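Extended Data, panel c. Modelled sequence:
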Amino acid sequence: MSPKPSISAFFPCYNDSKSIGKMVEDAFTTLKTLTNDYEVIVIDDGSKDNSRAVLRKLSKKHKKLKLVFHSKNRGYGGALKSGFKTASKDLVFYTDGDGQFDISEMKILHMLLTPDVDFVNGTRMIRQDESYRVFAGNLHRFINRWAFFLPVVDVDSDYRLIRRDIIKKIKLESNTGSICIELVKKAERAGARFREVDIHHFERPYGNSQFFRIDRIVKTYVELAFLWIRLMVIDKFFI
């Protein structure tokens, strides 16, 4: 019997001091049931609360916890790029550090990552956010799925298990939330085979969304426009 694949699990963290501790603990609990070779990584993207104090305390307890501290905020894409760069195991799982997902459902994704699958995408069954955010999110999802011809329904769910071999084949450039679309599209072009599964989504236990602000939304859509030109025009027809 071949050994179980090793797993890296990482979380981007920005002012998530009240939720990141439980996320890390739940990750260790879950990973122990899936493999003997694992690591947990947290990318603190310039938090202004006491997230780093919480993380340093956790690192004294867990030797397999890796911490990456950005000196200034690099944006969601910047945090994800650091996570993928730091991950060293066969499989890479990531989700947000705000506590809106159940880490134990990583087991479902792991079960579905059969030899003929490279990328398992978690799709939120019922999105537990304010109604205006749900509407805006659904519209965003619909437009971008068809603009980029994406192979998954919920491109912004940020609950994923991916073979690291696929990640090594692509170069991610986005620094905003547009990285989710870039990741999925470039993975598809690198030959990834996809599978989707429904997962639970919960109300945010603490704080507010760091993304749903006018400045960040505008920046993301500007980057999406350039991403569409690069991926759907230049790369497709001129390279």
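The chain is about 40% helix and 15% strand. This feature is highlighted in the accompanying rendering.
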